[in-house]
Amino acid sequence: MYKHKSADKKKLFLLAKKVQKNAYAAYSNFYVGAAAQAEDGSIFVGCNVENAAYGVTQCAERAAISALIAAGKKKVIALAVVGSVPDFLTPCGACRQWLREFMLPQAPIYLCNDAGVQKTSSIAELL
Ligand code: THU
């Protein structure tokens, strides 16, 4: 858990990129990192964790949200997700459903590649 008084887009990207390195992607070799900011400014990170039973793989976004909820926070006010893709990564359907539960419709979702934030979206837009 990382604390910032005024976490911004850049910090969320950098933290997502940092945790991306810890991904366990033994089956896809696709590393993903996510950083979720709570209402009080604290930031929680997650990476994808795969399994031989691929269906129970945990996505980075859901890992970050789980950490935020486990810490007693209630809402995600901003989220960054980064994958090694040319343009930007968008959350999968299951993650979109999770984001729908914990984010306001217009709250920023920063879609990133290795170079930085490439697009700012929202759960309203993604759904
Ligand atoms: N993955 C994520 O963690 N988040 C996304 O938004 C897209 C996909 C993971 C799941 C799996 O471990 C790997 O990336 C390939 O799909």
Provide a quick synopsis of the model:
Helix content is 29%, strand content 24%. The protein is α+β, with helices and mostly antiparallel strands. Strand 1 (32-38) and strand 2 (43-47) form a beta hairpin.
Task: Write up what this structure looks like.
This protein is α+β, with helices and mostly antiparallel strands and 127 residues long. The chain has helices spanning 9-20, 60-70, 93-102, 123-126; strands at 32-38, 43-47, 76-83, 109-113, 116-121. Strands 2-1-3-4-5 form a five-stranded mixed sheet. Strand 3, helix 3 and strand 4 (109-113) form a beta-alpha-beta unit. The longest helix is centred in the N-terminal third of the chain and has 12 residues, at 9-20. The mean pLDDT is 94. The structure holds tetrahydrodeoxyuridine (THU). Tetrahydrodeoxyuridine (THU) is lined by residues 25, 28, 30, 32, 48, 50, 57, 59-61, 81, 89, 91-92, 95.
Distance between the termini: 28 Å
Largest sheet: 5 strands, mixed
Taking all residues together, what is the mean pLDDT?
94
Structural class: alpha+beta
Low-confidence stretches: none
Helix content class: 25-40%
Strand percentage: 15-25%
Order of helices and strands: HEEHEHEEH
Side by side, the strands of the main sheet go 2-1-3-4-5
Small-molecule binders here are: tetrahydrodeoxyuridine
Helix count equals: 4
Shape: globular
Give the C-alpha Rg: 13 Å
Counting DSSP E segments of at least 2 residues, the number of strands comes to 5
